[in-house]
Amino acid sequence: MIDQFNMRDHFVSLCNLVNQTRLDGVLVQSGELIANMTGGRIALIYLLDATGRNLVLSGGYAQGFSTWAPGSRIHPLQGGGRSPVCPLTQVAFTGKNLCLDNGTAGYDMSPVISALDGVNCPSHVAVLPLARANADFLGVAVVLSDGAIAPWLDRSVARQILRAVAAAIETRQVVAGQENEKAMLAKSLARAEGDRMSLRQRETGRLSKRLIGRSRPMQALREKVAHLADKTGPVMILGEDGVGKEKVARAMHEHSVHSASAFVYANCASLPIDVFAPELFGHKRGAIKGVASARQGLLRKAGNGVVYLDGIDRLCGPGQEMLLRLLETRQYRPLGSDRDLPLAARIIVSARSDLSARAQEGTFLPGLYYRLREMAITVPSLDECREDIGDIVQAVLNGIEREEKRHLKLHPAAFAFLSQRPFPGDRRELEGLTRLAASNAKDGTMLTAEHFQAVDAQSEPENVSTPGILPLPEALAMFEQDLITRALAQTDGNRTTAAEMLGVPKRTLADKCKKYGL
């Protein structure tokens, strides 16, 4: 009858215990429940810490003190052999109840008394072990009462309530641990995101040295390049002639994890179908009539690097179909071979901005366009970011200073002139015009509008009656000068790379540059 009465009496307290969502609330409710169950006046709960070597005073309840809470204290668990014996340590090691109804002689009660912090210590003490669901030691509950405690501990209801208390504490500890891990993970993710953004900013800062311009379209372009640099799929770079599509492709490769691998260039306009396949895939010895030796294709030559197909819109129809199959299967077969090879290189292509319309008209393979547009970048024209003209000119002048040791500056009036001048050849034309304007300038000169106007005047035909007709040597020289100027513009003035692109020795290119004042 007593058990039934107490269980009914403590039912509300048990419900409150189960409904607690915080560990500190569980500890307070547990202290009150244990004190009421044993007829005690004070209950303290010590929990084993993460090291397993200390008991930490984690909560408590004192009858008649609604706002009382014990201060947090750490009690090291000491081994046997000490005199007097600490009751907390004894229960922790034995796992059995310790009831001191007949006095505390022989026991060191200082850990309990100090925890009361001025509250009068009752004469009867009981230390009760708390166990986890797997029977591992969880902690102890210390009950202090003005009357005997032992009779209360012999009842089944006491054991049930102690198990309920231990289960509630263990559950809240697990939840608190999970919430703590979740919070730490959130902080870690936030730091990782911050590091990623910082890295992206550093990458876009490095890209600004190659993809020049402070305008918003150029900033967006650099962010897109940094975003796509370490991806593996094919990329399509769209833009009109002269905007610098190859620079974008090279910048993307240089900022990827495979930047140490090769960057292989191919001009699709010069690759008819009978040349496209052996050039791209390679061929075995004897596979092509009249060609005795084998050839390593561009895909094999690039390795894990990049194969850049310039002017994909000028590629013949069968070549487009071959490229589409290569992208879909990621395998290719050299001519004359009987086995496929895996595609290791990344494919980057460039095309003019009207490729979408051409795909809709059917003059460009729609399937290839849809496959390539999954990762597409549009390079803004100079008309979209004319505020970048000064930066582009200054970059060219900086290149001249590094290569030729000539220090040149741009006059503000020249910038105003260039800002109003049309550039049908886009950035390439602006860079070439700057090099030509600087070709006859002496060291320390400030380039004015007259320097650029003089270049424009020289480009006009002298014989108006026969426009477009020039002596062959002069026409060839103009074509050669323009070709070299374009190559230097595309390579940021790097003569070694420009010589490789033009297929001539570096010394030959140096002589040509000297001849034309480039």
Automatic annotation (TrEMBL):
One of its GO terms (molecular function) is ATP binding. Gene3D superfamilies: 1.10.8.60, Homeodomain-like (1.10.10.60), P-loop containing nucleotide triphosphate hydrolases (3.40.50.300). SUPFAM superfamilies: GAF domain-like (SSF55781), Homeodomain-like (SSF46689), P-loop containing nucleoside triphosphate hydrolases (SSF52540). InterPro entries: AAA_lid_NorR, Homeodomain-like_sf, HTH_Fis, P-loop_NTPase, Sigma_54_int. Keywords: ATP-binding, Nucleotide-binding, Transcription, Transcription regulation, Two-component regulatory system. One of its GO terms (biological process) is phosphorelay signal transduction system. Residues 211-439 form the Sigma-54 factor interaction domain. Transmembrane segments: none annotated. This is Sigma-54 factor interaction domain-containing protein.
